[in-house]
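Our preliminary data section would be incomplete without showing what the modeling component actually yields. Below, a chain of 495 amino acids is followed by its predicted structure, encoded as tokens that our downstream tools consume directly.
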Amino acid sequence: MLKRPVTEDDCARLERERLAADRAYNDALTSLDRSVPKPPPPPSAPGAYDEQEVTPLNEAWRVSPSEPSAAGVRGRLSHAIWRLVVPWFARQEAFNARVVAHINNNVRHQRELVVSIAAGLQAVSDQAALLARFHSHLILFLQQITPYTDTKDRSLLGHVALVDEQAIGAVADELLRRSEVMQAREARYVAQVRALDAAHQEMRSGFATLYQATFTLKRELERLPGSACPGESIVVAEPGAPAADTHRAATSVARSAAGTAVGALDGWKYVGFEDHFRGPRDEIRRRQADYVPEFAGAHDVLDAGCGRGEFLDLLREAGVTARGLDLNHEMVEVCRARGLAADEIDVLQFLRTAPDGSLGGLFAAQVIEHLEPDYLLRTLEAAFHALRPGARIVLETINPACWTAFFESYIRDLTHVRPIHPETLQYLLTASGFQQVEIRYRSPLPQSERLQHVAIAEGTPPALRETFETLNENAERLNRRLFSYMDYAAVAVRL
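Predicted structure:
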């Protein structure tokens, strides 16, 4: 609140400030009035097109002589000479016809151009006149502001000072709140623009890599016509061999290319290994249920490395038709016993024989770490061709960036071939033609399994407090490396 009342001196001071503001306003208005530009005179329209020689040209373009009579010696001689020279006259006449036609066309276009330029100049002149009129009205409007404000009682400003300070504070708080809301909105808009820019850069990078891969493949195929793909061996069945023997030979080669050691283990032992270490079926269903919405409305989804069929169960319950693949015979039998569609076949072999655009999605959980790099690359390329536009591919694997996941999960399984870093898998999907690649980290370690922070009590000496803060920072740094997320999933779209 004010400590003193408003005096006459205060009102006189306010009046002097008003007069000074009026003088400044009038000076600025005078300067503005003097600086209003005058509309320049419009330029003259271009003259008419010179058509003086157009009519003579249209009448004189024919130069070929008429065919003479062949009667008599002189007539036959004239007719022979005419037959020799008439082709040259015909070429000249054709040239003359084209020139005359060109001139006639230009005459019409020139007439239209003159009319169009004249209309444009008239429109510009009209707009300049309107702009000058607007400037005049604007000056008149500004001249009325000072008389209008002079009708107000300047002494009212003295009463404004009597307004409660709390009300002014409330208005200031509201303005501050609205300013913070605007800043938050602006930050969201900036984040969205950055996300769009990142997606654009990702798409450009993917297309560039795709073009480079296409050109490289074309060059290599031209150098090695008729050869098999690098890293593959060709399976040739003996004449008259049963189809089952041919399938077993192909599966054996595919297992070698995939790098899996399942063939070296008894199938039932690996089923037991899954039950013991990966977790019970209900737990796997709970973890994989988050992926079902990615395939909503799809059909003909492929579950590569379906294992015991947990995800096939979830898709069937969601009304999504799906088929599972696995090289472990016992796993396939477990799925078939529960009425699930499953085949004992290599995923790359299946994808290469599938028609282009025949699959509505591809899911692989804890599979790609079993594959050799070359085999993984060829599988991603084959999947790109087999999937329909708009279909999703979801690849879940162990997170090697988390050291706990690497040492407790990855190296425990004898069939694992190579860990795959999240950024590496993201790049491989982009390079294979997929877009909107997103990395989703899953299965975080509970807080109780992480390094705990040291509680710093009030009154702790500065030196000891600094030591505790350093320990907490180091613990947080180790937590990000050692105890983060056990798994991650790469989700992408085939556009």
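The longest strand covers residues 387-398. The CA atoms of residues 358 and 386 lie 6 Å apart. Preliminary results of this kind motivate Aim 1 of the renewal.
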